[in-house]
Model the fold of this input.
Amino acid sequence: MSRPIALALAAVIGLALLPAAIGSDYYVNLASQILIASILAMSLNLLVGFGGLTSLGHAAYMGAAAYLTIYATAHAGFGHLAGLCIALGGTLLLAMLFGYLALRATGLGFLMITLALGQILWGLAFRWVSFTGGDNGLGGLKRPQPFGIDLAQATSFYHLVLIVFALAFLAIACFTRSPFGQSLAGTRDQPRRMRALGYNVSLIQWISFVYAGVWGGVAGLLYAYYHQFVSPQALHLTTSAETLLMVIAGGAGTLTGPVVGAALVLILKNVASVYVTRWVMLLGVVFVVIVLFVPEGLVPGVARWSRRLTARWRRPAASVPAPLTAEHNS
Done:
């Protein structure tokens, strides 16, 4: 068994045993929130880290999937499986449309279009009261009991989220390491050269955009079942900006960086806010420290510092002269 696979299995087993180790429903629910936010951050990282496409409207897919799930299941009379298909299908179509519009521009123009599209969707959720409930939001969703497993229990729901998270991590890892994922990185680094080599840069970026949007929809499904409620806040700019912060703080372009960033932001938001009233200011200070000392993000930054410390620790041993052999003594 290779080392990365062994580490991944050890991480999954450790996360599966986490509820038994912490023994508190509050922290188990917090862990579920971190895993859901991690899926959303990993999907955004596909665009930001691997595609060089900075989006400020990625919360649109999570919010749209959450609205569609709750409306279809709790208000339109569909079953949970049908609600899941409607939510993912709707998110897929939304990502296809938004990708087509946003990729008409690059750089700052792309960022502004994604921001505008996200805000349009937020305004729609805020004003379309008959469908979304307006400012009051939409609720009434009950968690299912597949195979007799009560997902209303914090631990059961956490394990479901963990399974989906593991599948998302594996799917995104396979995508980024595939030839198609490598071509996406090529469009980020050398778009002109990629065009000259015959690659369809726009199509590669659009497919990646849709793929990232669908995984954002999966995060929205879990968000809906976790909170059993959704409001326009799920679509707001602050949610998109917070997700982008998770990616940048953890390390854009790495697989584990968004997970670390999501854990950092959610822990500060839910735990530090109990002791520090102005926790947003604390989050700002932490982000400034990260940018100053590990500008590439926590995961690659800590790896860089670790390599430097290891090299410094080995250097004195390498400088010790080798003992003279019998041949030299003669």
Remarks:
- The chain has a mean pLDDT of 88.
- The two ends are 50 Å apart (CA to CA).
